[in-house]
Write a structure and sequence with these properties.
heterodimer, A: Rossmann fold, about 15% strand, globular, B: alpha/beta, Pyruvate-ferredoxin Oxidoreductase, domain 3, Rossmann fold, 4 domains, 8-stranded mixed beta sheet, 7-stranded mixed beta sheet, 21 helices
C-alpha cells in the first residue's frame, strides 16, 4: 500500500490559506486509501491555480491548456482505459473556456473523474468574474457589476443526465475525500464541483460563508431520482447541499467501443500482414 | 488511346456512381486512369461533373477536351457541351431533359426507358449509361458484370440480373446507334489499382500503425476519418468524432501521451481552431500527425473546391517558436509514403508533422500496378515496460545531445511521466528559471531542427537533367506539371522541379537544385494560389527568386490545356 510520502511533489505556489490546500490533502488521502500508486494514475489539468495541482503531488501528469483538460483526458482514456484518469480544472477553466467540452464529455460518458476547483473567481489573472461569480459582483473590469447570471454546474450536469454529479467543500475534508473515492468507484464520467474560497480575490465566498451554508444531503436522499436531483441542484444561497446529487448507470464510453473490449489500445499490436490484403481492396 | 469522359448533371443523379464504376472497369481492364471531380457544396441539385481520363500509358492529370460527354441535365448541354472535341460525342436522354438536339455529335439514348424496360426500374438508368459508354468504346461487359455482382451481392440475385440487363441494353443501343463513333481501344493488361489521394493518406496512416484519430468533419479532409473508421475493428483503431477541432486536436494529443500513434485531420478553418493545440504539441513534445486539406478561403470560402493557400499558414501559425515538419504529397503514392514518413518523423523527433494536401489531390484517383509496402518504415520510439524496467530514473524532458528525450508510456513502469504546457524542467514540472528556459528552447527547437532537416529529401527533377526552362511546383500540381513537361519536351529543354518535402526546407547536399535553377535561363513557379506562397518560402530559405510565376486562384485545378496556354504566353 502506498503512503502519503509516496505522493510528495513540489512545494505549492498557492497563496497561504488557499482553498486548494484542502483539496490537495483530500486527494492524496483518497488515492492512498484507494491504493493507487503514483505511476498507476494520470492527472490532466488545465491552466489557472487548479492547473498547478498535479505538480504538487507525484503522478503521471499532462498539464495542458486552459479549458482543454477534458479532451486530453478523453484521449488518454481511449488510448489506455486501464489507466485511471482525473481531470482537474478551475471554474473559469472548465465552465468558461472549456464549456463545450464539458457538455460533450457528459454525453460521451467517458470514464474520467473531473474535479472542478470552484472558487467563483479568476485567481491567476487576479480577480475577474468567472462563470460561477454571483450576478452583480463588482470586479476591476466589471465596475457596474457582473450582468451575466451565475452558472449552476450541478443543474447543468443533471439536465444533461451526467452519470455522476456531486458537490464537495474543501473545508469538509473527510467528506470531500469520500466523495472523491465514490467518484473514482463510479463507472462513468463524474463531475465533482468543489467549493473553495479564494483568499486573495474573493472576499465574499470565504471559508466562513461556505461553512454557514453547506449541509450534507440526508442519508435517505436518493441520488438516482433525476427530478429530485434537479430540484436539489437548484438549491443555492442560504443552503447549499454537498454530497452526491445524482448518479445513473449508463455504461461508460470505454465499454461501448468494440475495439477496446479485450485489450487497451496501447497494448494492441499492429498486424502488418493484413496490409497487403487491404491494399487489394483498391483493385 | 487517350480518352476523356465527363459525366455531368445535378448532385443526387448518381454522377459519382457512374464515374467510379467506369474508372474501376478501366483499371481492372489494365488501362491507366485519372479521375477528378468538380462539385458544389450541396447534396442535391446544382451543376457537377466527374471526369475520367483513360489511356494506354500513364496519365497524371485531366484534359479539357472531352471525347464522351454524358449529360444528365439540360445545363450540361450548355456548359459542358462546349468542351467536347470535334470528334467527340454527347450522350443524353431527350425524354429526361425534355429537349432534342440535332447533329452528328449527339446521341440520344433513352436511359430511363431502357432501364424500365430491361431492369424493371428507372433507378437503373445509370447502369444503362455505363453500358452505353462501354459500348461506344467497344469494350465488353465482363468486368462490369463482376463489379455489379460485388456491389449488389447483399441485395440479391434479382438486383444483380436487373443491373446486368440494363447494362446490356445500354451497350447494345450504343453499338447499333453510334455506328460512326470512332473510339478504338488498346488491348487490356493486368488489373491496376485505382486509388484516390485521400484514401492513400488513410491507408498510409493505418500502415504506419496509427491507432487513434479524432477529428471534426470538414471537406476535403473527412475521407481520412471515414477510411480509418471503416478499418477500426480490423486494425484496432479508435476513431472519435470530436465536438470541435479544438477537442479533436487535444484528444489526439491525449491519446498520443497515453502511448499510441495518433492523428487528426481537418481543413484550414478547422485547423485555425487547432492552432492552440499545435503549440501544445510542440511544448509537451507530444507526437502528432495533422492531415491538413486545403480549400479556398478566407473563411468558408469555396468549401468543395481546391487551392494551395494554406502553406504559409501551416508554416508560421501557433504561438511561440518551435519546429514542425511539413510534407506535401503530389500523388496518391507520395501521399501513402509521406504519411508514413510523417508518423516516423513525429515519433522520432516528437515534433508535430503535417501532411498537407488539397481537395484536388484528395479526390483525384490514379492507377498503379501496385505499391511496394516493403518501403514502409515503422520504428518504435516509445519506451515500453521492458526498456523502462531497467531505468533507475526517468525524466520525460531530459536534455540530450539530439534534443530528443525518452518517450515513455505512462503506467508501463514505476516511473511517472510528466509534461506541461508551461515551460518546464527535465522532469516536466513548471520552471521559470532563465537557464532552464534557454536550454529547453535549444533542445526543442535548435538541436532538433537541424537533425530533422537531414531527413528531408530534395525536390524531384523530371525531364531534362540540364534544363533551360524549369517549371517548379509543390504538392498536388505534380501531375499537371509533369504532363506539361511531357508535352513540351520534344520541342524544349525543359524540366519539372517538384517539392513534396517542404519543411524543414531541403538541403542541397544530396542534389544541388539551386545550381540547377541558377543555370536555367527561365524558371517559373506554378502554384494553385494567388500570392505564390511556395515561391516566398523559397526566397526566405534560399534567397532564390523564380523568374516568373503562374497562379490559378479561381478554386479550380490547373488543366493541361490551360497550363500549356499560359506557358506558351510566358515562354513564347
Amino acid at each position: 500500500m502506498p503512503t502519503l510520502d509516496d505522493y510528495k511533489g513540489q512545494t505549492p505556489a498557492w497563496c497561504p490559506g488557499c482553498g486548494n490546500f484542502g483539496i490537495l490533502k483530500a486527494f492524496k488521502d483518497a488515492v492512498m486509501e484507494l491504493g493507487l500508486e503514483p505511476h498507476q494514475f494520470t492527472i490532466v489539468s488545465g491552466i489557472g491555480q487548479a492547473g498547478k495541482f498535479p505538480h504538487y503531488l507525484k503522478c503521471n501528469t499532462f498539464n495542458g491548456l486552459h479549458g482543454r483538460t477534458i479532451p486530453v483526458a478523453t484521449g488518454v482514456r481511449l488510448a489506455n482505459h486501464e489507466m485511471p484518469v482525473f481531470a482537474v480544472a478551475g471554474d473559469g477553466d472548465c465552465y468558461g473556456e472549456g464549456g463545450n467540452h464539458l457538455v460533450h464529455a457528459i454525453r460521451r460518458n467517458v470514464n474520467v473523474k473531473l474535479f472542478v476547483h470552484d472558487n467563483q473567481v479568476y485567481g491567476l489573472t487576479k480577480g475577474q468574474a468567472s462563470p460561477t461569480t454571483a450576478e452583480g459582483t463588482v470586479t476591476k473590469n466589471a465596475p457596474f457589476g457582473v450582468f451575466s447570471e451565475q452558472l449552476n454546474p450541478m443543474a447543468l450536469a443533471v439536465a444533461l443526465d451526467c452519470s455522476f454529479v456531486a458537490r464537495g467543500f474543501t473545508g469538509d475534508q473527510d467528506h470531500l475525500k469520500s466523495l472523491m473515492k465514490e467518484a473514482f468507484n463510479h463507472k462513468g464520467f463524474a463531475l465533482v464541483d468543489i467549493l473553495q474560497p479564494c483568499v486573495s480575490f474573493n472576499k465574499v465566498n470565504t471559508f466562513e460563508w461556505y461553512r454557514q451554508r453547506t449541509y450534507h444531503l440526508e442519508p435517505e436522499y436518493d441520488p438516482m431520482d433525476r427530478v429530485k436531483a434537479f430540484e436539489r441542484s437548484l438549491e443555492w444561497g442560504d443552503r447549499i447541499p454537498v454530497g452526491v446529487l445524482y448518479r445513473n448507470s449508463r455504461p461508460p464510453l470505454e465499454e461501448r467501443v468494440p475495439v477496446i473490449q479485450e485489450t487497451p489500445l496501447v497494448k494492441q499490436t499492429f498486424d502488418v500482414g493484413k496490409l497487403e490484403n487491404t491494399l487489394k481492396e483498391f483493385y | 488511346m487517350d480518352y476523356t469522359i465527363r459525366i455531368c448533371g445535378e448532385a443526387g443523379q448518381g454522377i459519382q456512381t457512374v464515374g467510379d464504376t467506369l474508372a474501376k472497369v478501366f483499371a481492372r481492364n489494365g488501362y491507366h486512369v485519372f479521375t477528378h471531380q468538380d462539385y458544389e457544396s450541396r447534396i442535391r441539385g446544382g451543376h457537377n461533373f466527374y471526369q475520367v481520363r483513360v489511356a494506354d500509358r500513364p496519365v497524371a492529370a485531366s484534359r479539357e477536351k472531352i471525347d464522351i460527354l454524358v449529360a444528365f441535365d439540360k445545363e450540361s448541354m450548355v456548359i459542358d457541351a462546349r468542351e467536347v472535341s470535334g470528334t467527340g460525342r454527347i450522350m443524353y436522354d431527350s425524354t429526361a431533359i425534355k429537349q432534342k438536339f440535332d447533329g452528328p455529335a449527339f446521341l440520344d439514348i433513352p436511359f430511363t426507358n431502357l432501364a424500365e424496360e430491361h431492369g424493371g426500374s428507372k433507378i437503373m438508368a445509370n447502369t444503362v449509361a455505363i453500358g452505353a459508354i462501354l459500348g461506344m468504346l467497344g469494350l465488353d461487359l465482363k468486368i462490369l458484370a463482376g463489379i455489379i455482382t460485388d456491389t449488389f451481392r447483399k441485395k440479391g440475385e434479382g438486383v444483380i440480373s436487373a443491373n446486368n440487363a440494363s447494362a446490356t441494353a445500354g451497350h447494345a443501343f450504343a453499338v447499333s446507334n453510334c455506328r460512326d463513333c470512332s473510339f478504338p481501344t488498346a488491348s487490356g493488361a493486368d488489373p491496376k489499382m485505382l486509388i484516390a489521394g485521400i484514401d492513400a493518406i488513410g491507408f498510409g496512416a493505418i500502415a504506419s500503425g496509427c491507432k487513434f484519430l479524432s477529428a471534426y468533419p470538414m471537406t476535403p479532409s473527412t475521407g481520412i476519418m471515414n477510411y480509418l473508421a471503416g478499418k477500426e475493428k480490423e486494425f484496432g483503431i479508435v476513431v472519435e468524432q470530436a465536438e470541435d477541432e479544438i477537442a479533436a486536436m487535444n484528444m489526439a494529443l491525449g491519446a498520443s501521451f497515453g502511448g499510441v500513434r495518433s492523428m487528426t485531420a481537418t481543413s484550414g478553418g478547422g485547423f485555425a481552431l487547432m492552432v492552440e493545440g499545435l503549440s501544445l504539441a510542440a511544448m509537451t513534445e507530444t507526437p502528432i500527425v495533422i492531415g491538413l486539406g486545403q480549400r479556398p478561403g478566407p473563411a468558408t470560402g469555396l468549401p468543395t473546391r481546391t487551392e494551395q493557400a494554406e502553406l504559409q499558414f501551416a508554416l508560421y501559425t501557433a504561438h511561440g517558436e518551435f519546429p514542425r515538419i511539413i510534407l506535401a504529397p503530389g500523388t496518391p503514392e507520395q501521399a501513402l509514403f509521406l504519411t508514413n514518413k510523417a508518423f516516423e518523423l513525429t515519433e522520432k523527433y516528437q515534433v508535430p508533422a503535417f501532411v498537407i494536401f488539397d481537395q484536388y489531390l484528395a479526390d483525384t484517383q490514379w492507377t498503379y500496378a501496385g505499391f511496394d509496402l516493403k518501403k514502409l518504415v515503422r520504428n518504435d520510439y516509445r519506451l515500453r515496460a521492458d526498456a523502462l524496467a531497467g531505468l533507475s530514473g526517468y525524466k520525460r524532458h531530459a536534455y540530450s545531445e539530439s534534443g530528443v528525450s525518452p518517450l515513455a508510456i505512462p503506467g508501463a513502469s514505476k516511473h511517472v511521466v510528466v509534461t506541461d504546457s508551461d515551460e518546464h524542467d527535465e522532469e516536466g514540472h513548471i520552471d521559470e528559471d532563465a537557464g532552464t528556459r534557454r536550454r529547453m528552447v535549444e533542445k526543442r527547437m535548435l538541436k532538433k531542427l537541424s537533425l530533422i532537416r537531414r531527413e528531408i529529401m530534395p525536390p524531384l527533377l523530371y525531364g531534362s537533367d540540364k534544363p533551360e526552362v524549369v517549371l517548379a511546383g509543390w504538392g498536388s500540381t505534380f501531375g499537371i506539371i509533369k504532363e506539361a513537361v511531357d508535352e513540351l519536351l520534344p520541342r524544349r529543354n525543359i524540366a519539372m522541379l517538384h517539392f513534396s518535402e517542404i519543411y524543414p526546407f531541403p538541403l542541397t547536399d544530396r542534389f544541388d537544385y539551386l545550381s540547377l535553377l541558377n543555370s536555367a535561363s527561365k524558371t517559373i513557379c506554378i502554384e494553385n494560389n494567388a500570392t505564390g506562397q511556395f515561391a516566398r518560402l523559397m526566397r526566405a530559405e534560399t534567397g532564390y527568386v523564380f523568374a516568373s510565376a503562374i497562379h490559378r486562384y479561381d478554386g479550380r485545378p490547373f488543366t493541361l490545356e490551360g497550363l500549356l496556354g499560359e506557358l506558351h504566353a510566358d515562354l513564347g
